[in-house]
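Quick note —
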Amino acid sequence: MALSITEDIRSITDLKRKTNSVLEQIHETKRPVILTVNGKAEAVLMDAKEYERITSAFTLLKLLIPAEEDINNKRYKEARAFFKDFKIDKKI
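Predicted structure written out below.
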């Protein structure tokens, strides 16, 4: 989903004049469109399904933060040792 600066940066005026064309582009390319006002980025318009996909991926990434902190703080056990202790604890 690499941004194409020649296609994906549009003015708000362009959006007003060519709404259907811009929406069609977003659905076909799955790339977001950057909307500008007076030459400066103001908003991002993207396909709803693509937004849901990105939001879902971001949510999963946020769930990994505590695990990453545990690893950085050496609060983990190697799998072999974990399963050995687990089997002993559960009498398996």
